[in-house]
Design goal:
Layout: E1 5-11, H1 12-39, H2 49-83, E2 86-87, E3 92-98, H3 101-134
Antiparallel strand pairs: 1-3, 2-3
Length: 138
């Protein structure tokens, strides 16, 4: 009978990835807060219906990404608790990790990461357009 958990001998790189993801998630959280503040500021107030719809779309996507980040934070925490690592040497250690969970977490994280930075690029383009439209120089 197979169990859901197996002992794995892994490189330190796997847990270093998880630590890096946690740092990246904290950075994305900070950038989301900043972006929300910018979107709600007077400078970037949409003055046309099209810009208003775009602003609402961005705010909805930011909420979705925030929800996804909270979910992956919980999954990473569960993964770390389930893994229970102990070191064999400086480069290698054994942990009891759920089979296939690391690759699932990695895939999910990379999807969220790329979705956020794509959205950030769209938001910055939108903001540049709003500034150009609202504050044209003569």
């Amino acid at each position: 009978m197979k169990t859901a958990y197996t002992n794995h001998l892994h490189n330190k790189a796997e847990f270093e990835n998880v630590i890096k993801w946690k740092a990246d998630i904290a950075q994305i959280d900070a950038e989301i807060r900043f972006t929300k503040q910018l979107l709600s500021s007077y400078m970037f107030e949409p003055r046309t219906e099209i810009l208003f719809k775009k602003s609402l779309k961005f705010q909805r996507k930011l909420r979705e990404i925030t929800t996804d980040l909270e979910e992956i934070k919980g999954n990473i925490k569960k993964y770390e608790q389930a893994s229970n690592p102990f070191f064999l040497s400086e480069k290698t250690y054994v942990y009891n990790a759920p089979t296939g969970q690391f690759s699932t977490l990695k895939s999910r994280f990379l999807n969220i990461y790329s979705a956020f930075y794509k959205l950030k690029e769209e938001v910055l383009t939108y903001m540049r357009g709003v500034l150009n439209q609202n504050y044209k120089t003569v």
